[in-house]
Amino acid sequence: MSKVGSDPASVVAGGSFLDSIRVRVTDGTNKPASGASVSFDVIAGGGSVTPATVIADANGSAAAKFITGTTPGTNTVIATVSGVSAVPAIAFSITTVIAGTIVWSAIPMDTLRGVWGTSASDVWAVGYHGTLEHFNGTSWSPVTSGTTEPLVGVWGTSPSNVWIVGGFTGTILHYNGTSWSSALERQQIGLLFGVWGGSASDVWVLGDIVPALHYDGTKWSESGSVTPTIFGMWGNSSSDIWAVGYSPGPGGMIVHYNGATWSSASPVTTQGLSGVWGTSASDVWAAGANGVIVHYDGTSWSSVTSPTSQGLVSLWAASASDAWAVGYGGAIVHYDGTSWSNMTSGTTQDLFGIWGSSDSDMWAVGTSGLLHGTRAH
Questions:
Q1: Under CATH, which architecture does the 2-97 domain have?
Q2: I need a surface site. Which of 18, 110, 122, 235 has the fewest CB within 10 A?
Q3: pLDDT value at residue 336
Q4: pLDDT in tens, 272-286
């Protein structure tokens, strides 16, 4: 007896499989065992199977509908061939969740480092060796980037104005809505990690470099001294931009741009910081090594209790009461407006970036490719 198909990632507690649970029974010569009696029994999590006993058809197939238990958790059904103890049982197992829970599903790819989009049907993901992938709302497809350099950060202002940064000696690519082209090859040692701007003619790039790079709508130039290494950047406006990283000595580094100059904020942690994101001038999050999380309330930065010791790399927030961070070992943590808690990612692979088009459509990227977060219903 063999399983047909695969178990779904999750269903809402009390719901049913998207399709029937199916098995195929064959005899000793691998021919369909038509007429074999297959029993389906719930062994964990409650629920029911209808019908509980199925007679295999001419193809040796037997199927039943599994309605899960009403309590969230692991639900398991086993299928056995009645009267034939020598045939091992087949197990079907599902993790059930509360309606509205974000469920993450994997899309295997090569390692990806950054993700960003303009909508649910226009998302870009970047990675090593010039890897560039695009999502059109239905499927992901590779796009020629024109480089073999590592690509790390991606950001833009519209579907026809997108920037990518990376490169061991400073690579900046630009998308005009039709094709990608090289906007700058700095030709100086120093990887570019962060890109953000106030408009199409006001874009900043930071990384393992000094000074910062600025685009004025016509050209890139060096502007403003920011001590490296900067790993993440986010802004509320062209005169309110935050960047975070690792200081030359122990501790995290936070710098702020006020529209005229970059300046350092008072250190609030001894841990390096990798990601930053906010929803307003008085609601900004940063996270980094050993799971550290810090928050800015419009006046000062302060440490916040973190549910993980895994290093956190990237943040994204849908609102002041709905923020996410991802990191090493498949760590995904969520803020609900009161506290941060661990979420189930379904992977132990490292995650390097997160972005969402809404609070029910999110993408995370890492060493195994993509994770897509959607709400169970």
A1: Sandwich (2.60)
A2: 18
A3: 97
A4: 999 999 999 999 999
Contact predicate 232/214, CB 8 Å = no
pTM, entire model: 0.85
pLDDT band of 9, cuts 50, 70, 90: low
Q: What is the pLDDT of residue 283?
A: 98
Q: How confident is the prediction for the chain on average, in pLDDT?
A: 93
327 vs 307: CA distance, rounded Å: 12
Lowest mean pLDDT, pick from 54-63, 187-196, 198-207, 221-230:
221-230
Q: Start-end ranges of CATH 2.130.10.10 in the chain?
A: 103-375
Give the confidence band of 192 by pLDDT, cuts at 50, 70, 90.
Answer: very high
HEC profile for the chain? Answer: CEEECCCCCEEECCCECCCCEEEECECCCCCECCCCEEEEEEEECCEEEECCEEECCCCCEEEEEEEECCCCEEEEEEEEECCCCCCCCEEEEEEEECCCCEEEEEEECCCEEEEEEEECCEEEEEEHHHCEEEECCCCEEECCCCCCCCEEEEEEEECCEEEEEECCCCEEEEECCCCEEEEEECCCCCCEEEEEEEECCEEEEEECCCCCEEECCCCEEECCCCCCCEEEEEEEECCEEEEEEECCCCCEEEEEECCCCEEECCCCCCCCEEEEEEEECCEEEEEEHHHCEEEECCCCEEEECCCCCCCEEEEEEEECCEEEEEEHHHCEEEECCCCEEEECCCCCCCEEEEEEEECCEEEEEECCEEEEEEECC
Please write the tens of the pLDDT for every residue from 288-326.
Answer: 999 999 999 999 999 999 999 999 999 999 999 999 999
At the top level of CATH, the class of 103-375 is mainly beta
Q: Residue 82: how many CA atoms within 13 Å on its side-chain side? A: 13
In the chain, the amino acid numbered 137 is G
Residue 200 corresponds to which tokens in the numbers above? Answer: 């199409």
Q: How far apart are CA 347 and CA 340, in angstroms?
A: 19
Spatial distance between the Cα atoms of 47 and 367, rounded to a whole number of angstroms:
37
Cβ-based neighbour number of residue 186 at 10 Å: 18
Instruction: Locate CATH 2.60.40.10 in the chain.
Output: 2-97
